[in-house]
């Protein structure tokens, strides 16, 4: 979680906020999707995360992909902006989440998990996706099915 959110929460407690983030659909030359298995869980997710204060979503995508996979995003196209109704997370914080979904059009590097958020990285065929986390995961599954 970005530092500014912790500072904000110290001021407002659990009251609702808007949180913006970005996720990337990164495919290899076979069209397989890169996913990360979340540390300590048996669920997989797209690389991505929350924006820092004032950070544009495309820059968030680039930063989060680098931090979580060691890949450099060279080009990406915005596909959609996902929104959630008000959610209450495990610690009681409330938020509306807005997630910019990007198709990563060009990237370089060799995927390496960060060992903090992600325990493992793997490419999956669109017809063999594992259990995916949340609304971005549902979007990815539907998007791949429509290709």
Automatic annotation (TrEMBL):
Keywords: Hydrolase. This is NUDIX domain-containing protein. It comes from Deinococcus arboris. Residues 16-147 form the Nudix hydrolase domain. InterPro entries: NUDIX_hydrolase-like_dom_sf, NUDIX_hydrolase_dom. GO terms for molecular function: hydrolase activity. It comes from the Bacteria. Signal peptide: none annotated. The keyword Hydrolase applies. Its cofactor is Mg(2+). PROSITE patterns: NUDIX (PS51462).
């Amino acid at each position: 979680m970005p530092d500014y959110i912790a500072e904000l929460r110290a001021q407002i407690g659990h009251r609702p906020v808007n949180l913006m983030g970005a996720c990337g659909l990164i495919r290899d030359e076979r069209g397989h999707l890169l996913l990360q298995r979340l540390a300590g869980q048996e669920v997989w997710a797209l690389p991505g995360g929350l924006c820092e204060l004032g950070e544009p979503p495309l820059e968030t995508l680039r930063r989060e992909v680098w931090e979580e996979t060691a890949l450099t995003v060279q080009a990406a196209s915005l596909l959609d902006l996902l929104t959630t109704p008000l959610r209450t997370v495990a610690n009681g914080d409330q938020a509306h989440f807005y997630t910019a979904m990007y198709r990563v059009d060009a990237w370089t590097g060799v995927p390496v998990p960060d060992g903090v958020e992600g325990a493992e990285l793997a490419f999956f065929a669109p017809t063999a996706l594992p259990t995916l986390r949340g609304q971005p995961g549902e979007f990815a599954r539907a998007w791949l099915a429509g290709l």
